[in-house]
Task: inverse folding
């Protein structure tokens, strides 16, 4: 049985079992990344979760559909593997938010997307995936038996047809272990203060990460998501509108201790595949994130098995790598994706992004 708001809003907000399963579809990659970020940087998980909870609800109700709210994966991935500190991540989030707000307000998104070819964007995704794999190996090596057990669980889930859900199951298992070791935390409201995990640090790394992230965001979170809004939900949401809302999100969330966030096409497709059709999925997921923020304390995080975090990062990295490579259907484009990915791992993601743009235009 579902409970809906009346008349016209009925198609925009419905709380039902399909909206609940749709909410799960969007959390599959979000929660593992957030936990990994909190375990490897000074980011405050409660503050990060509050940001996601608030903006899941805000943008779901604003757009009247289950719009995805995800971490900016290039920036968060770089922070997880040590390429950016949390203060640098915060600075990059503010820079990205400012650019997206201006680009969306003045209709520049299409012009920006034309400069960066899709293979370059996919190459950055591949680079982040490879960096996550590198970090995963190091973490898993700390407790090989636990890591092997985690990989065995993932293998069983994949064989049973639950590939996308496997990361969430591993996260839940790590959470159970953490609760068994540290106990259930007493619910506590996150402190209300500006930049609770450190002031932004505007470094060269932050700037390079911002440039690389913007390529992914314009292509995947603005333009591709705009197309999916029309294809899946019959909604006319422009890429510029999405860019503007992402800019607002970053500029509001980062000072409060959050992380850079975007509207991902993968998350939107995931919500649809799991049954979400209205903003109800966002409201359910937002409330869940806000409730989780009350108990996601430092003691619980410290008890999370790092070897299972390694397994978690492998699953996330594989999914990100698949998203990078599967849409590419020509050999020259594939070669450029791989080249950008490898340069990003061996040298620097920002440099790989710039060189990739040059190679794309000279092809």
Result:
């Amino acid at each position: 049985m579902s409970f809906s708001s009346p008349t016209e809003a009925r198609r925009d907000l419905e709380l039902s079992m399909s909206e609940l399963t749709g909410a799960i579809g969007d959390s599959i990659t979000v929660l593992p990344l957030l936990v990994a970020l909190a375990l490897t940087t000074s980011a405050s998980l409660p503050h990060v979760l509050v940001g996601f909870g608030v903006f899941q609800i805000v943008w779901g109700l604003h757009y009247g559909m289950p719009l995805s709210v995800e971490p900016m994966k290039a920036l968060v991935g770089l922070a997880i593997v040590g390429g950016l500190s949390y203060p640098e991540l915060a600075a990059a989030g503010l820079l990205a938010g400012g650019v997206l707000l201006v680009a969306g307000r003045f209709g520049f998104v299409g012009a920006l997307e034309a400069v960066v070819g899709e293979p370059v964007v996919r190459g950055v995704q591949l680079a982040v995936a490879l960096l996550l794999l590198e970090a995963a190996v190091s973490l898993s090596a700390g407790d090989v038996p636990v890591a092997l057990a985690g990989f065995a669980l993932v293998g069983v889930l994949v064989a049973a047809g639950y590939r996308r859900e496997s990361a969430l199951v591993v996260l839940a298992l790590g959470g159970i272990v953490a609760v068994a070791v540290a106990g259930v935390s007493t619910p506590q409201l996150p402190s209300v203060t500006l930049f609770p995990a450190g002031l932004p640090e505007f470094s060269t790394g932050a700037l390079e990460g911002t440039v690389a992230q913007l390529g992914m965001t314009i292509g995947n979170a603005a333009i591709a998501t705009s197309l999916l809004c029309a294809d899946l939900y019959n909604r006319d949401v422009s890429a510029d509108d999405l860019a503007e809302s992402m800019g607002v999100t970053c500029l509001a969330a980062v000072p409060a201790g959050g992380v850079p966030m975007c509207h991902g096409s993968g998350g939107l497709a995931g919500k649809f595949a799991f049954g979400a059709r209205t903003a109800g999925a966002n409201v359910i997921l937002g409330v869940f994130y806000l409730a989780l923020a009350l108990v996601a304390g430092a003691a619980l995080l410290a008890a999370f098995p790092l070897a299972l975090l390694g397994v978690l990062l492998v699953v996330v990295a594989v999914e990100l790598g698949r998203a990078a490579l599967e849409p590419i259907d020509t050999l020259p484009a594939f070669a450029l994706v791989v080249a950008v990915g490898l340069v990003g791992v061996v040298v620097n993601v920002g440099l790989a992004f710039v060189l990739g743009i040059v190679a794309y235009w000279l092809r």
Confidence is low (pLDDT under 50) at residues 1-10. The chain has one domain: 14-362. Residues 14-362 form one domain. The beta strands are 3-4, 14-15, 70-71, 261-262.
